[in-house]
């Protein structure tokens, strides 16, 4: 199988993630040349977690870089078929939904934190999360993305 980042749709989406971050935050997500292959490779192999979902009524994850796949303990196929709400525990979903709505209104937020859960039930704390609207080639909203560099696995009795 081709690496996910080498698929043409993923390469196009990687450019959207990269350009949208720059649009909203007025700084690059990472520093690379603008070649589509370079952007796709760099984002997929970045040391930070990068995820996104579409605009469906119950948004489905449509991108997760290598760090995200490891953290949520899923392969590409499983990850990109998962409703994004399932990455958070039920108790965390209301706050998550509120912040996603705030990001949609403002274009981005840069101070999110919360608890997430992997496919195997492993809980982890994320912080300093940036969430932004993903824009297509016509500057139309086509989803939301999140990026974070800091996470910590939680023990069963932590919360």
Structure keywords:
alpha+beta; 6-stranded antiparallel sheet; 5 helices
The CATH superfamily turns out to be PAS domain
Order of helices and strands: HHEEHHHEEEE
Q: How many structural units, i.e. domains?
A: 1
What gap, in angstroms, lies between the N and C termini? 39 Å
Sheet with most strands: 6 strands, antiparallel
Q: Return the structural class.
A: alpha+beta
User: Which CATH architecture would you pick?
Assistant: 2-Layer Sandwich
Shape: globular
What is the count of helical runs? 5
CATH hierarchy, class: Alpha Beta
Radius of gyration from the alpha-carbon trace, in angstroms: 15 Å
- Return the average pLDDT rounded to an integer: 92
Element layout with pairings:
Blueprint: H1 8-25, H2 36-44, E1 49-53, E2 61-64, H3 66-72, H4 76-79, H5 90-106, E3 108-117, E4 123-135, E5 141-148, E6 150-153
Structure description:
- The chain has a single domain (4-153), classed as 2-Layer Sandwich (Beta-Lactamase), CATH 3.30.450.20.
- Helix 1 (8-25) crosses helix 2.
- 35% of the residues lie in helices and 28% in strands.
- It has 159 residues and is an alpha+beta fold.
- A hairpin with a 7-residue loop joins strand 1 and strand 2.
- It is globular and about 45 Å long.
- It starts with 7 loop residues before the first helix and ends in a 6-residue tail after the last strand.
Please give a quick description of this structure.
This protein is an alpha+beta fold.
